[in-house]
Amino acid sequence: MPRTAVLGLGAMGSRMARRLINAGHEVVVWNRNADAAQALVDAGAQLASSPREAALNVDAVITMLRDDEASRIVWSDAETGILSGMRKGAIAIESSTLTPAREWAADARHIGILPVEAPVSGSRPQAESGQLLYFLGGDAADVGKATSILAPLGASFHHVGPVGDAAVVKLVTNTMLALQVGAWAELLPMMEREGLDIDVALKALAMTSSWAPVAGYLTMLMRSDNHAPQFPINLIKKDLDYVGTLGGDVLLPLSGALKSRFNAAIDAGIGGENMSALVKLQRS
Questions:
Q1: Is residue 262 packed enough to be buried (19+ CB in 10 Å), middle (13-18) or exposed (0-12)?
Q2: Where in the chain is the domain with CATH 1.10.1040.10?
Q3: What is the tens place of the pLDDT at every residue in 182-227?
Q4: How far apart are the first and last CA of the chain?
Q5: In 3D, which of 82, 71, 177, 58 has the Cα closest to residue 118?
Q6: What are phi and psi of 194, to 5 degrees?
Q7: pTM (global) more than 0.85
Q8: How many helices (H) and strands (E) does the chain have?
Q9: What is 3-162's CATH number?
Q10: For the domain 168-283, what is the CATH code?
């Protein structure tokens, strides 16, 4: 079985690492806070002291990091970075939600490493059950090798183009999700104030072409006031920031207006709550 390193052991990365362990991979883990790795070490993973050490003598490295800056440091630091430790021919898999990682990919290829973008659609339950949807960016042969590594983690794998394209597709996905969150955060409280029977209204709306698959989940969370973090407001706002850097000099006014609402939620002190907590702005 492959020897695979997983770096970044937050809500997603820790679940991905555990599935690889359960699938028989020899797993090496690293996290900035080493305490987060203990449960995985108890399950059989090897703990590395640095990203470089984690990358030594592995077949593949998977990262699940918070943002562009964290990714840059973990991959490219001259002394402790992953790229300084990987062997030629190993597969570098970037699963974080970032801006397009074209420079990273060029650096990896320059030293004989195979770079693949592999951001995911799905949250903690999908990571835990191996039902993530992958967007893959890279050379076809490299993507094929990465898919064989990622097989225990995903239910669907889509090669969308070269490195860079997968990041854009993922950011589009998250922006469409944010639009749904923003719409329901306004419309559901409005319907409640109008005195509608919400069960009846939502059942009717669910029959229309405008009903998105995520709408039932979002309205359930908003109605129950259950905002335990699955996809926190802070992170979805970060993704909206990244979307604003794409497409050259053309402005994205709707995305910008949406970002302002998530900024308002952060200013209100609920940035660490689930994206569904945006509804609190309309109920305050």
A1: buried
A2: 168-283
A3: 999 999 999 999 999 999 999 999 999 999 999 999 999 999 999 9
A4: 53
A5: 71
A6: -80, -5
A7: yes
A8: 13, 9
A9: 3.40.50.720
A10: 1.10.1040.10
* Residue written as token pair 């944010």: 178
Nearest by Cα to 98 from 6, 163, 19, 30: 163
SS (H, E, C) 153-181: CEEEEEEEECCCHHHHHHHHHHHHHHHHH
Query: Between the CA of residue 7 and those of 60, 70, 81, 183, 277, what are the distances in Å?
Result: 11, 11, 11, 35, 29
Rounded to whole angstroms, the Cα distance separating 245 from 224 reads 35
| pLDDT at position 227 | 97
Parts of the chain belonging to CATH 3.40.50.720: 3-162
CB atoms within 10 A of CB 26: 16
Residue 164, both tokens: 């860079």
Query: By C-alpha distance, which of 274, 259, 271, 265 is closest to 234?
Result: 271
